[in-house]
Amino acid sequence: MHRVDAIEPQGVCFQADGEELHLDQRQAMDRFLAGVELRALRIAQVAVRDKDEALDIVQDAMIRLARSYAQRPETEWTPLFYRILNNRITDYRRRSTVRNRIFSWWRPGEQDDPVPQPGELAEGRESDRPDRQLAAGDAMQSLETAVQALPARQREAFLLRALEGLNVADTAAAMGCSQGSVKTHYSRAVHRLREVLGEHWE
Amino acid sequence: MNEPDGKTTTPAQEAFAARLGQRLRDSADQLDGHTRSRLNQARQAALQEIRPRRAWLGAPALAGLATAAVAIIAVSLWQPASQAPQPLVPAGIESADLELLMAEESLDMLEDLEFYTWLATAELDGGSAG
């Protein structure tokens, strides 16, 4: 039988069955992570276009959630996890951009940027254009390319709402912005994706 | 079809977004066994990081520690313009770029700050961190 003694006035908490509570906590976290890991990987993969990097990012987000937030209520884990994940993705993209800028300085003429920046799509390779990929029959690749080309905040809002299925409030918590901003980013993302993919996906 | 106020989505747009979301979810469900295995390993590694429910000792001291940590970080980040070092990087490369590259975890600090803030709040609330 579990017995948790009262919390002392000074904030000292004694738990008679701490090991079992820890086990429950671990099982709950295991269930949570198992439930989100596939979609989290897809979100990271779409954002960074590299499966190995995406796996590293997801693992890092998992570790950070478990290490720092396991004791928070389970209802908070979803927005916390995706906030960490988005931070990791943003961090990766920033580093990638800077790294490529420096490499291009050292080696003029060589461009090796695996991450497209917003608005870059129109100037990218012809084969990267979603309409060309659709023509080649690769619908999923065209979808990923179109989502990758969205501005970061629009991409985050779209993936969290449409792929992960978060509501507006949880998406706002995950993105660290207001619900109104989420609605704006999401609406613009959907509008843009419909412009790019519309006739093929209607 | 344009949305009327830039914030709302029409039913047609919602249906469109739902189709895209479903395709992405389907592709997630179809990830190969090797990838799933790596995710499982990542999850197990994360679970090892869970710290047991802690017995909080000396709440005021911990709250003070959190405050001190925030203050130290703030002071370390503050730098008068007159003392700013001259850039030693080639023209065309901003020093901020190098700092970003060399930083171990540029966003860790923000998350840690958030954690310390929560820790201090939880302690002030009477140790109801869990």
Give short descriptive properties of this protein.
heterodimer; A: 202 residues; mainly alpha; Rna Polymerase Sigma Factor, Chain: A; Arc Repressor Mutant, subunit A; 2 domains; 2 strands; disordered N terminus; B: 130 residues; 5 helices; flat; disordered C terminus
Q: What does this molecule look like?
A:
Chain A has helices spanning 18-48, 51-69, 77-106, 130-135, 139-148, 152-163, 168-175, 179-201; strands spanning 4-7, 13-15. Chain A is mostly helical and 202 residues long. Chain A has a two-stranded antiparallel sheet. The model of chain A is unreliable at 1-15 and 117-124 (pLDDT under 50). Helix content of chain B is 60%, strand content 0%. Chain B is built from 5 helices and no strands. Residues 126-130 of chain B have low confidence and may be disordered. Chains A and B meet through strand 2, helix 1, helix 2, helix 3 and helix 5 of A and helix 1, helix 2, helix 4 and helix 5 of B.
Quick take:
The complex is a heterodimer of chains A (202) and B (130). By secondary structure, chain A is mainly alpha-helical.
